[in-house]
Amino acid sequence: MLINTKKNHRLSEQQVTDESVYHGRRELLKKLGYLGAGSLLAQSASTNAGALDFFSSKEAEVFQRQALKFAPAGESLQILTPEAKISSHNNFYEFGMGKSDPVENAQGFKVNPWQLSISGEVDKPYTLGYDDLFKHFPLEERIYRLRCVEAWSMVIPWVGFGLAELIKKAAPNSRAKYVAFETLYDPEQMPEQKSRFGSVEYPYVEGLRIDEAMNPLTFMSVGLYGKTLPAQNGAPIRLVVPWKYGFKSIKSIVGIKLVEDKPPTTWNILADREYGFYANVNPAVDHPRWSQASERRITTGGLFARNRIATLPFNGYGEEVAHLYKNMDLRKNY
Ligand code: MTE
């Protein structure tokens, strides 16, 4: 097995180009007047569908600095996975099992109107409509790695807000020990949900322990690369838990429920021995069918690009999250 890090952290010319395209577009939008002064929220996706840029340039600067704080050590904006890859290599089984199925099958997916309800063991349950997703909480940009359990990874500039903000607003009570998430169930729009051959039970469900959910890294994303989320990436709102395997980062969420008992989770229901509730990225614990010691970083290169890198414990976020598991055996609690 190839385990290599340093060399692969260096930038290729193409990767640098991608960053400049990203910033170049911001400049262009600014010139065209798309970047509203002051307000992060001036343009909701409904009024500026497809071309939403969330930030003014000043705000973007601040957020970039903030984002770099969360970026893994030694990495910078310059190694962002190109937008075209992030939005064409996807796992979203509701739209098909292949990596290119979601981008092909999700294009007509209607996200407006949308309803996201926050309920359960809370004093103040509430519901957010489509526009609220962009208005209720200050938006920021966070650059995170996404490490899939299948051993590929990306570096993605998400836009969104902390899950903790959304939960606090509902005033959880003392029985709230876990958070359960649910994806939209709409077989008319999501073809795999009516497939008779699929093995996944729908709606897709996920869960976190309350302290994991309240950790500052845990993020609700409504955009990437400064625009609203593409349907195939989980529009209009999805979870991002950067220290866990990607399957925890549930897409197109309609329900968030604070609960007393550990909630069922889709991949655990399907294959208990292979996918646990915790699913923390852990190079020391292999998947029963493959190694988790390294990963293929998806970059601009093709199949033969030298892009295999070592996988880091907690995906490189140990400093922020290892304390959550201090008395736990991570081999048993995989
Ligand atoms: N959420 C739903 N509802 N359905 C899915 O099939 N796939 C998960 C996760 N969230 C999935 C989902 C998996 S396995 C991964 S790796 C990530 O989404 C992929 O996110 P991306 O396509 O934005 O890279």
The CATH superfamily is identified as Oxidoreductase, molybdopterin-binding domain
Question: Helicity, in percent?
Answer: 10-25%
Q: Describe the biggest sheet? A: 7 strands, mixed
Architecture (CATH level 2) name: Alpha-Beta Complex
| Rg for CA atoms | 19 Å
In words, what does this structure look like?
With 334 residues, the chain is α+β, with helices and mostly antiparallel strands. It has one domain (13-325): Alpha-Beta Complex (Sulfite Oxidase, Chain A, domain 2). It is built from ten helices and twelve strands. It has helices at residues 6-9, 13-32, 57-70, 83-86, 101-105, 132-135, 163-169, 210-214, 266-270, 318-321, and strands at 115-120, 126-129, 140-147, 152-162, 178-183, 205-209, 219-224, 227-228, 238-240, 253-259, 294-297, 308-310. Strands 3, 4, 7, 8, 9, 11 and 12 form a seven-stranded mixed β-sheet that branches. A five-stranded mixed β-sheet has the order 2-1-10-5-6. The longest helix has 20 residues, at 13-32. Residues 1-17 and 24-52 have low confidence and may be disordered.
